[in-house]
Amino acid sequence: MLSVISYPVFAISVILSLVLSISLFPVGWFEFRPEWLGLMVFYWTFRAPAQFGILFAWCLGLLLDVLEATPLGVNALGMALIAFLVLTIHQRLRMYPIPQQCVMVFLLIGINQMLVHFIKQMLGGEDAGFSYLLPALSSAIVWPFVCVLLDNLNRKLG
Amino acid sequence: MAGGSAIKTIFVQGPVPGFRLLLVIVISAVVIVADARFDRLTPVRSVIGTGLAPIHWLGNAPSELEHWVAGLFTTREDLQAENEDLRARLLILERRALKYAALASENNELRRLMNSSEVLDDRVIVGEIVGVSPDPFSHEVIINKGSRDGVTVGQAILDANGLLGQVQQTSSFTSRVLLVSDSSHAVPVEVVRNGLRAILLGNGDINALELVHVPDTADIREGDLLVSSGLGGRFPKGYPVAEVASITKESGEPFVNIKATPKARLNQSRLVLVVFPPEGERDEDGNAPGQSSATVNVEPGDEVER
Predict the structure, then answer these.
(1) Taking CB atoms and an 8 Å cutoff, what residues of chain B touch A1?
(2) Which residues cross the membrane (chain A) (predicted)?
(3) Which domain holds residue B43?
(4) B132–A contact, CB cutoff 8 A
(5) Which residue, B167, B166, B208, B214, is CA-closest to B190?
(6) pLDDT digits (tens, 9 = 90+) for B100-151
(7) Number of A:B CB contacts under 8 A?
């Protein structure tokens, strides 16, 4: 839990993550695109669990649903689940060293991806093996950088 | 809350925020079913999409910047060469247009003689692709024309070479286009050479479409051009869609396996044309012929398989 958080940093990070989740990405690397919004939900509920919670994550997920043209509520539910899991473990999470945090990011974003994939399947999506878990892997890899960057910004501007 | 501000509590949100999760799960279930099964939330999606238009704009900004920078470093000679090239092409196209005008009037004359009042010229507006779908398993693009420009769901989208797809969703400033190669997309087509009708399905491969339910004995060859037949009532008639690439016959199967390559450059085009169905022009002609042509169009559409 940070002592101070900066709301401008929060707003900019969320907008940037939405832009990154639709902006052009190298062709052939689409499957590896990190789940940016999931990382933001993870970070903000982890650092400021008093201010950001499940309902906030749900609203952000709704925006992602519109951007990705998935049925409304699918990603919203996934994001809310990330927020819920972070809220239940955030006290232990703060004690973990960075590599262990990365493992938790992989698990939580993986759970989110599985849920989203499962609902899409029920609504008649196509099966694509296990490649839907790749964003969880890439998210875990970028997590240390995102975390350090946002921490520094929060300390300077908060 | 008064005590909470003085002493920092460890449990910031109660023991476990399970109730909120339950609430959110129930809301999500209702919203998902309402949206996916009953299509009740299209206006909501459209409103949120309009609010998110700046996000699309920002997402496209890097490539706009790249274009701008590339434009800065173009030499005068290159521009002149391009200019001359374009002028030459314009001349060729103008000549063709002259011939086309004569042919069109002749065609209209013939159609009038045959008592059918189909309007040949469609109205189009030019749009630009400002984004692609972030989901690697769906073939969709986002264009910068929306309901404010009169775009509605179901309109056909072309590029310079052929049919690109159809509008799936609109918001005020952008709309989402489903490409012909998406696995949920189908176009009714006919072979230009002999008018053989079939359905062209996308299969998730950007370079190959599938022509289905063509009998073993049908007259179709590699290299045949497939144009939209207009029978579904969704796509206008006569735009090139694909070219037959390979035909494989397997003994014992009732239908042949036919692969076709799309004519439109699905992953390269930047400028697209949004086609407006000729409703307005039909109304100008008067209602009676418009209605009769509509009924004439519908009847063959019902019996696709002869």
Answers:
(1) 12
(2) 6-29, 41-64, 70-90, 102-119, 131-150
(3) 12-50
(4) yes
(5) B214
(6) 888 888 887 787 777 655 555 677 888 888 888 777 778 889 898 888 888 9
(7) 116
Residue found by looking up tokens 């009708």 in the block? B197
State the ipTM, two decimals.
0.86
Question: What b/e readout covers B155-166, taking b as 16+ CB neighbours within 10 angstroms?
Answer: bbbbbeebbbbb
Tell me if A2 is assigned to some domain.
Answer: no
Rounded to 5 degrees, φ, ψ at B189 are -130, 170
Q: How far apart are CA A34 and CA A136, in angstroms?
A: 7
Residues 6+ apart with CB under 8 A from B281: B119, B121, B123
Q: How many domains does chain B have?
A: 3
Note whether residue A18 is domain-resident.
yes
**Which CATH number goes with the domain that contains B260?**
2.40.10.340
B134/chain A closest Cα distance in angstroms: 5
pTM above 0.90, yes or no: no
Calpha distance B261→B265 (Å, rounded) = 10
In angstroms, the CA B32 to CA B24 distance is 12
pLDDT per residue as tens digits for the range A14-38? 999 998 888 766 666 777 888 999 9
Range of the domain at A83: 7-157
Question: What is the rounded CA–CA span in Å between residue B61 and residue B144?
Answer: 13
Do residue B16 and residue A87 have CB atoms under 8 angstroms apart? yes
In a domain, B228, yes or no: yes
DSSP conformation letters of B24-48: HHHHHHHHHHHHHTT---HHHHHHH
How far apart CA A37 and CA A11 sit, in angstroms, is: 12
Residue reference for tokens 């909120």? B20
Q: What residues have CB less than 8 Å from B166, skipping those under 6 apart?
A: B154, B155, B156, B157, B177, B178, B185, B234, B235
Same domain assignment for residues B164 and B200: yes
Which of B20, B58, B133 minimises the CB distance to A54? B20
